[in-house]
Amino acid sequence: QQQVKQSPQSLIVQKGGISIINCAYENTAFDYFPWYQQFPGKGPALLIAIRPDVSEKKEGRFTISFNKSAKQFSLHIMDSQPGDSATYFCAASKGGGGSNYKLTFGKGTLLTVNP
Amino acid sequence: DADVTQTPRNRITKTGKRIMLECSQTKGHDRMYWYRQDPGLGLRLIYYSFDVKDINKGEISDGYSVSRQAQAKFSLSLESAIPNQTALYFCATSGGGRQHFGDGTRLSIL
After folding, report:
1. Percent of chain B with pLDDT over 70
2. A40 contact residues in B (CB cutoff 8 A)
3. Residues of chain B positioned with their CB less than 8 A from the CB of A37
4. pLDDT tens-place string over residues A9-49
5. Chain A partners within 8 Å of B103 (Cβ)
6. Percent of chain A with pLDDT over 70
7. CA–CA–CA angle B20, B22, B26 (5° rounding)
8. How many Cβ atoms sit within 10 Å of the Cβ of residue A35?
9. Quick one: closest CA in A to B106, which residue?
10. Phi-psi sector, A41: left (phi>0), alpha (psi -120 to 50), beta
11. A107:B40 CB<8 A
12. Closest Cα in chain B to A40
């Protein structure tokens, strides 16, 4: 049973465009939703995260939108740049207060931003 | 994350061999993890450890074993490697509100 479903599997965007990656979860006990960014040859690194008490969180060009009733959350990358080309993973965990201690990951989205 | 070091970075071996992947960290975190990454399948948890005396199976532990030698060291073993264990393996720690990943070991089993 896949607990976190991520789409699309791959995405091509032109420089300056908006990249949108979506995730849906099934377990209502999840209370922490991070996004990780992975460049080739490197391990994933935390990009941005949200807890379900807010519907949106923005950090620079990166925004998470969260819809608790629909059990969905998404990553928006504004003004996408070639340097944003990477694989993005959504994830979820439970632990009372947003513990990161055991994450369930989506399958990943390979983002390519063309110059 | 340079504070989480995995060795070796690349390994090619044959079916049936015993393999050990090593992970060390200088972050001082108690919690450590081993993940496997396959194209199109994302990251899947193999084992995790909340401290030296606590080791837990993840979702795909069959065919793998681990050893937590110290707070800073967490090793993953494949007792008898098989080709479908060919993958990219990541070690991670958790603390400071995030998981910190090493740069991975690319393992190929022929």
Report:
1. 98
2. none
3. none
4. 999 999 999 999 999 999 998 989 999 999 999 999 999 99
5. 41-43
6. 93
7. 170
8. 22
9. A41
10. left
11. yes
12. B103
